[in-house]
């Protein structure tokens, strides 16, 4: 998959794109990330990418010309989404990451700053995505989160693909607790069932823990699941 990030601060991504599984995936050509600076497409001597808003008001607005030029400089894959990172967009979640990983060959990510983009930039945009109901200094952090979330779902990124199906949000539930050696640490013991060798009992314990954790920490998720099961005539 190809990612193209339109950003005024390409250096922001340098370290993150070289680290961990994400760095290995990019080195292995599972995905590629290109960084495009709109400032390189300005035509004035000051290389200005922003200007005062029409109608007055505080802050500056990103001009449309360098953004259009930056996006139009990119090759377009057949299955392409142009995503604006904005608090006004749909909320990022695991379902969105799965959809993007499976359904697209290219994601163009527009990272805003200041008071945002000139509204005419929306003619380039096919989707708006938000990291959450809060405001950051720019779109780079949401863009990096989206890249990370999508790339880890691409075949070959995670060593054991089955591990992707047993983590938080994949079944609509939070993940179960994990333990490793030693069996006792500072009088804190690993649950006996995990040491029993009884795989059926372990599987049931993990499912029970997922439901319990979700009920305690994210009851909204459990409510959605229970509603779905009721509609399907099933029970959780």
Q: What is Rg?
A: 22 Å
Please identify the top-level CATH class of the largest domain: Alpha Beta
Quickly give the structural class.
Answer: alpha/beta
The 3D shape can be described as: elongated
Low-confidence stretches: none
Mean pLDDT comes to 92
Largest sheet: 5 strands, parallel
As for the number of domains, it is 2
The CATH topology of the largest domain is what? Alpha/beta knot
Spatial separation of the terminal alpha carbons: 37 Å
Description of the molecule:
With 236 residues, the chain is of the alpha/beta class. The chain folds into two domains: 150 residues, Alpha/beta knot, CATH 3.40.1280.10; 66 residues, Orthogonal Bundle (Trp Operon Repressor, Chain A). Helices cover 30% and strands 17% of the residues. The chain is built from six helices and nine strands, in the order βαβββαβαββαββαα. Strands 2-1-6-5-7 form a five-stranded parallel beta sheet. It has a two-stranded antiparallel ribbon with strand order 3-4. Helix 3 links the parallel strand 5 and strand 6. The longest helix is centred in the last third of the chain and has 19 residues. The radius of gyration is 22 Å and the shape is elongated. The mean pLDDT is 92.
